[in-house]
Amino acid sequence: MTTLSVNLNKIAVLRNSRGEDLPSVETAARACIAAGCGGITVHPRPDQRHIRPADVDALAAWLPVEFNIEGNPFAGPTPRGYPGFLALVERARPAQCTLVPDSDGQLTSDHGFDLAQAAGRLRPVIARLKAWGCRVSLFMDAGTPDIARAADLGADRVEIYTGPYAKAFAAGEATVALDACARSAEQAQSVGLGVNAGHDLNQANLGVFLRTVPNVLEVSIGHALIGEALYDGLVPTVRRYLEVIGDATR
After folding, report:
1. Cα-based distances in Å from 238 to 21, 46, 117, 225, 230
2. Which among 93, 193, 178, 89 has a CA at the least distance from the CA of 138?
3. 8 Å CB contact between 66 and 5
């Protein structure tokens, strides 16, 4: 069955708004794990506006499920205490690194890699991450011609950027975007890559996605899940996502 990895960035946003310790990222992780999720995702950015390096270190010390750290692999250290993406990963040693081409000031991830431009820089980074025992996933646009190149660079998986699909679904026009996701997944699998997916997936659009896009190994969901949990509770919301996944992939 497709693994649900819960992104905890929004828990950290709420905590940081008061500059204190509540709500606790670790307590939220424990609740999600108790509800049955198979992974925890964080995306520590250099500006530390949500997940911070200390959160990464704390989670890495005890998580019993897959730990997925997302980020720009070329982000270096900052004067405010961000050690750089690779330095953070080296000490945390997560099960998976999802590499994303976002700039330091970007509000959220909104496009995948252009491997025609980034391949030369990515190849040694991917090799280093794999030497540390990390599975490597590249954030890629649906419909990109670069999928096969991701395998050539040594990546293990691609994460299909599902933002355009979610937007099209909300507008009632999801067919074209969904077909692009399915074709990209099939292309990735044909060259030996596993397929993850993420961005703006929610309880309404997830089931259709998983029934149409073949053999998705993992979905990373944060913004919608945490937003829905404000009304319904974190544990029940995680369980509902797992039910959607189960119904779609059974």
Report:
1. 23, 28, 38, 7, 12
2. 193
3. yes
> Is there a contact between 54 and 63 (Cβ–Cβ < 8 Å)?
no
Q: Cα–Cα distance between 219 and 7 in angstroms, integer? A: 10
Residues with a known catalytic role: 43, 70, 199
pLDDT tens-place string over residues 88-97: 999 999 999 9
| Distance between CA atoms of residues 79 and 113, nearest Å | 27
User: CB count, 10 Å around CB of 210?
Assistant: 22
**Do the Cβ atoms of 34 and 66 come closer than 8 Å?**
no
Interior CA angle at 166 toward 164 and 172, to 5°?
A: 105
Whose CA is closest to 235, among 32, 26, 12?
32
Rg (CA), the chain: 17
Length of the chain: 250
* β partners of residue 6: 40, 221
The model's pLDDT over 52-104, given as tens digits with 9 standing for 90+, comes to: 999 999 999 999 999 999 999 999 999 989 999 999 999 999 999 999 998 66
Single out the residue of 236, 157, 196 nearest to residue 41, CA to CA: 196
